[in-house]
């Protein structure tokens, strides 16, 4: 079978081996040739894409948060994993940008622990009701346990506002009380959801301890925090999965050195909680980010930066024999580092509303699979740090999957990925780009990255094709593509094509058209900036 078409950005071809087949006409312009050989089946393609995360945990049970979580749960039969910050942070439960709280732990006047799981339960109940799994981030430090407790910060103007408490990034003043908090949390979860359910969760210790914003302690103090946390989790549920260290990019100085010292401690260090040598570790986590820039008014992405971080993390893990087979979860894997930094304040983030975020996600996800195969590591999850921002202006330019209940183009990529099941299939492309060239140089020349990821299950096949360039998509031309699929059964087949481009699966383009049709005299940049602010 040969299918030819112009590929503006992203296309997914789903073939069901049962009914009929309709061909698309071949373009006269010489296309990029993509070949898919269904006869060359490789290893199963794990659904590593089904991990999502966000800072504002309190958005979980709000109106648009519940709607989006329901949509994520419906992407495929695979259970989606959800990670959120601030699960133990003190506060009144009112969210703000990059802020949330549960007030799970306080102390009475005699210093006796008081546990309150009401908000935590509201969050986890929302996940469980939708068949999702918490990727439990154990943090941050409750005010009553912090070595540096303080008052409410200046952001809290009134009792109605969200209250940002200081002290949340510091080590505990009492590690045994901290361990007791973790132990009680795990036991409570088992009581509420059942042992079999909680056994399927990941318990991950803290977030980016190599950054002083998130961790005010030393690396040794983080190791101690991890030891006590892991010991508490395992005492409550010996079969639980616990891991870390959830550091920043391994190819950076802070992230690379930090993850190495942590893994060395796990393998050969003395456990601070037990006094014995060795520390429980069931999975390894780190972050990887791209780095977009604004050049002469045009956004240039930098996928190479993200792929180098991923590859370095894989290299570090694969170099340690005792750990090389452990599952790896890239706890945040994104085009850049701040989901709550809106486009109007950070113009380099203008890629987020349209198709660029979508095609970047497809291409980088496929390249992540390639790098894991190259390094021979066990890739278990890739967390997209993007959710939604409740009651913000439409298409404000946050790194999110939906805006005020409207799905953005990037969410449709995950719908495509949710259709890809079974084994990975051998593919070829005449495009000059591959995962190694992009890792080393990103996509900066004249040639775009036109490539494919394909799968085959018992009675279907899926072919994901993308057209990516670091330069913003509004300035890049479509590419003619010819897709040849070898190995189809000798019977009629049904072909369905899904497209994400300027005119398809693109709520942002439709919204702009709708707005401008109603404001014919105000089509100017100044007004547009006011509109989305």
TrEMBL record:
<dbReference type="InterPro" id="IPR051923">
    <property type="entry name" value="Glycosyl_Hydrolase_39"/>
</dbReference>
<comment type="similarity">
    <text>Belongs to the glycosyl hydrolase 39 family.</text>
</comment>
<protein>
    <submittedName>
        <fullName>Xylan 1,4-beta-xylosidase</fullName>
        <ecNumber>3.2.1.37</ecNumber>
    </submittedName>
</protein>
<dbReference type="InterPro" id="IPR000514">
    <property type="entry name" value="Glyco_hydro_39"/>
</dbReference>
<dbReference type="InterPro" id="IPR017853">
    <property type="entry name" value="GH"/>
</dbReference>
<keyword id="KW-0378">Hydrolase</keyword>
<dbReference type="InterPro" id="IPR049166">
    <property type="entry name" value="GH39_cat"/>
</dbReference>
<feature type="domain" description="Glycosyl hydrolases family 39 N-terminal catalytic">
    <location>
        <begin position="102"/>
        <end position="522"/>
    </location>
</feature>
<dbReference type="Pfam" id="PF01229">
    <property type="entry name" value="Glyco_hydro_39"/>
</dbReference>
<dbReference type="GO" id="GO:0009044">
    <property type="term" value="F:xylan 1,4-beta-xylosidase activity"/>
</dbReference>
<keyword id="KW-0326">Glycosidase</keyword>
